[in-house]
Structure formats: C-alpha cells, structure tokens
Input
Amino acid sequence: MKTQREKHDRYEVRFSGSGGQGLITAAVVFAEAVGVYDGKHVCQTQSYGPEARGGKSKAEVVISDYPIDYPKALELDLLLAMNQAACDAYFFDLKANGLLVVDSTLVEQYPTSRIISIPFTQIAKEEIGRELVANMVALGAIGLLSGRVDLANLETALLARVPKGTEEMNSKALRRGIEEAKKIDVQNLPRAVMSEEEEL
Output
C-alpha cells in the first residue's frame, strides 16, 4: 500500500510530438540527469505511432524519491506538446494543476489558458541555426519549469549523450531554453487546466 507521501512525491512528465523531433532523446537525457546524476528514482518509457518518422511519438519520465511501482505516467504533472496533434491527444491526461508547455511555432490552438507557449522550433532554426535542436531548447525549458532536476546535471547528461562535434550546439540550445523559461511566471498562470467556464 502506497503512503500519501509516496503518491504526492511522484512527478510525471510526457514529451510528445511527432517522430523525428528527437523527443525520445530529450526524455532519455532528462531521465539520466535525474537518475544517474541527481540520484533519484526514475522510470523512462516511450512509444511510437504507426510511422516512426512523422507519426505520433511520446516519451514519459516518472520521478520519485521512493521506488517506483508503476513505470508509466497516470496523471501528468507536465506535458510538453511539440505539435498540435500531440497537444490535442494528450491534454486531457494532465492533472488539474498540471503544466502544459507547447511549441508555439507548431501549436496554434490552445485547449486551456493555463499554458506556457515558447517557440522552440523557431528559436532552434533562427538562433541556433538548426531546427533539429528544437528538442534541446524544449528540454532546457522543461528542466527549469519542472523544478525536478539540477540544471548543471542536465547539461552533463546531455553532453554524455549527443554525437561528438555537436556538443556546443546542443549546449547552446539547452541554455537558450532555460533562459526562455526563466521569463515565465508560473505563479501567475490560472490555477487549474480547466476553469469552471471551460468545463461548462
């Protein structure tokens, strides 16, 4: 029987979008930073749609200070949606006070006013010079907004995972995401994902 403390301690994140956006890599780096470098209990799972590239893709990370008895996300504390299809498909898996983080370059219709929108793909393309690293811009933002990982350890885990020769570009993308997330005042967001008006 799980204690209330253990239930409360569990923190669930889903990285979602389409195959080819590097979301599974981002989730693996996040999980390694939390588990290997921060020393917490962590489970990382993933699934693809029918087509690996272009199909729906999601990867989940469950974090706890206690051993994790069920590895998959049940009620999300944080959902990253890198495209509209992912936002529409997974929004209802969020807790009432969960955080929805979207790539505003690719998500135009917002299902709630409790949302953080950052143009991850645009930043990657225009500032870093490679659209491919939008996942690492997003990872930086998720690292800061979740408050569940040491950001220096997140960068260490990232550098251990990316291909040789791309370290500087990926680090720059990660730091840029952290910087962008620092501009967000989470306390000023609506308290619940679905307001009373939205539920009617």
Remarks:
- The two ends are 36 Å apart (CA to CA).
- The domain at 4-183 is CATH 3.40.920.10 (Pyruvate-ferredoxin Oxidoreductase; domain 3).
- Residues 196-200 have pLDDT under 50 and may be disordered.
- The first strand starts at residue 11 and ends at 18.
